[in-house]
Amino acid sequence: MLNLTGKNALVTGIANNRSIAWGIAQQLHKAGANLGVTYLPDEKGRFEKKVKELVEPLAPSIFLPCNVQDDAQIAATFEAIGQQWGKLDILIHCLAFAGKDALSGDFSNVSRADFTQALEISTYSLTQLAGAAKPLMTEGGSIVTLTYLGGVKVIPNYNVMGIAKAGLEMSVRYLAAELGPNNIRVNAISAGPIRTLASSAVGGILDMIHHVEEVAPLRRTVTQMEVGNAAAFLCSDLSSGVTGQVLYVDAGYEIMGM
Ligand SMILES: NC(=O)c1ccc[n+]([C@@H]2O[C@H](COP(=O)([O-])OP(=O)(O)OC[C@H]3O[C@@H](n4cnc5c(N)ncnc54)[C@H](O)[C@@H]3O)[C@@H](O)[C@H]2O)c1
User: Fold this and answer.
1) How many domains does the chain have?
2) 167 among annotated binding-site residues
């Protein structure tokens, strides 16, 4: 029943083989989706090379740079989708950033620059990409973003990213309400802690993972592929009645009080 054949899916946020977006891309591909992949460009082209090699087996038909702080790159990405695909069915928003200084110590020390940057990249970008996707989702669609419990409850060192994720989860609800009449669904997956490039910037991430392994009902944390499975569900007709939700894929950790 989980068949995404004929669906065009844009996946953002692949940096390497540990990325959650990489787990999602593999599962969407397995379900038959035609993939487009964007990467964060850097001056030396390192990300481009690395991501290109990684995603080659999934044969993405679109592969473009897209820094979400660059309006021109966003416009070029969606223009290419319009020209090459005609329509978009799935948008995976799987990116975030905050300066390392803002991810440890006292939250009240966060600078205006770090605060603004974290919310621009990690929160505003969902709304911006969803707005660009809307006119291309002519047959309805599914938008999925990635969040974390630190946007709902206080997690040591998550600090400004918690504020960003709280805003992201509320953005999901406002976008779901706006886009629902177009049959575009918008949901978030709240993943348990996983070792990735982004999470390694959060102070004490390994302690967080060990704590989850001790306390979560399943006595472990989750894998990128498990998050990918949930994303494939949220992008398929199996979840056709679900929008505006945050789905916890965290081995059950969120239900625990102690
Ligand atoms: N790893 C975890 O424990 C965890 C848990 C819950 C939620 N998440 C969320 O999952 C998402 C993916 O993170 P990840 O853990 O896979 O780490 P990751 O480092 O593999 O992915 C983060 C991605 O964000 C991209 N990015 C950063 N700034 C960007 C910009 N300006 N424009 C475009 N892309 C940009 C990076 O290139 C990278 O691909 C993030 O939203 C993160 O907050 C992660």
Assistant:
1) 1
2) no
